[in-house]
Specification:
With 219 residues, this protein is of the alpha/beta class. It is 35% helix and 25% strand.
Length: 219
C-alpha cells in the first residue's frame, strides 16, 4: 500500500531554507557546483540563503553538465544508465577556484550515486592537476584545505552502485532533503527540477506545480 505526498515548489524552497543554516555551520561552502540541469534550481535557492547565513556575500555557482539517463549525441541507447557522459565542465580558470576551498556539489536526485561519484572523483583529479602549479612545499596544506561536499534534494533509499570516498564531507548525504524508498519517482522528480531550473522564481508559476512522491506506508 502506498500513500501520496504532495510537495509544492514552496515546500522545496522552504526545506532548503531550513537546511541551509546546518550546511553553513558544518560545511560553510566557498563555492557551489551545480550539476545541470536539475541542480541549478536548488543551487540558486541555496545561494540566496547561504549569503544570509554567512559572510560570503560573493558566493558563486559554477556549473558542470553530466548525463546518465538522458540521450547525448554520439552515445547509444545501450549506454543510458551505464556510463556518465560529461557534457560541460569547468574551464581552466574556474578549476583554479577549487584549490584550498570548500566546494559543495548540488544535484536534484541521487539514484545510483554514479553521477555524484563521477563528479567528486573528476573534480578531485582537477585539483591534483592544479596543485602542480604551486610550489611543492605548499601542496600538502592546499590539498588538505580543499574539501568536497554534496547536497541533493532527493536521495533514493536503495543500494548504490558507487560510493563516495570516506574523506568527502557529507558522504552519507546527510544534506538530502528527502530520503524516499520507491525508486519509480526519480524520473518525474528530475523533470520537475529541470522545469524549475528555467523558472523566474518570482514568476506566477511559483507554487502551482505539484509532484507526487510514492512512499511506502510507515516510512
Amino acid at each position: 500500500m502506498v500513500q501520496h505526498l504532495w510537495v509544492t515548489y514552496n515546500d522545496i524552497h522552504n526545506l532548503i531554507r531550513e537546511r541551509t543554516p546546518e550546511i553553513a555551520r558544518s560545511f560553510n561552502p566557498d563555492l557551489l557546483i551545480a550539476i545541470g540541469g536539475g541542480g541549478f534550481f536548488p543551487a540558486r535557492v541555496m545561494r540566496t540563503f547561504l549569503r544570509e547565513e554567512t559572510t560570503n556575500k560573493a558566493l558563486q555557482i559554477q556549473a558542470i553538465g553530466l548525463s546518465l539517463y538522458e540521450p547525448v549525441d554520439g552515445t547509444s541507447v545501450e549506454k543510458l544508465g551505464e556510463e556518465v557522459i560529461r557534457t560541460q565542465w569547468l574551464g581552466p580558470e574556474t578549476r583554479k577556484l577549487l584549490v584550498g576551498r570548500r566546494n559543495l556539489i548540488v544535484d536534484e536526485v541521487d539514484d545510483t550515486r554514479k553521477t555524484l561519484h563521477y563528479a567528486v572523483s573528476e573534480l578531485q583529479k582537477d585539483v591534483e592537476k592544479e596543485l602542480l602549479n604551486y610550489p611543492e612545499s605548499e601542496r600538502a596544506a592546499l590539498r588538505e584545505a580543499t574539501k568536497f561536499g554534496v547536497f541533493v534534494v532527493h536521495n533514493k533509499k536503495k543500494p548504490k552502485l558507487q560510493e563516495l570516498d570516506g574523506s568527502v564531507p557529507c558522504a552519507d548525504l546527510s544534506f538530502a532533503l528527502f530520503t524516499v524508498v520507491d525508486p519509480s519517482i526519480a524520473d518525474t522528480f528530475r523533470e520537475l527540477m529541470l522545469m524549475m531550473s528555467g523558472w523566474n522564481i518570482h514568476g506566477k508559476l511559483r507554487g502551482l506545480l505539484r509532484l507526487i512522491f510514492w512512499l511506502e506506508l510507515g516510512h
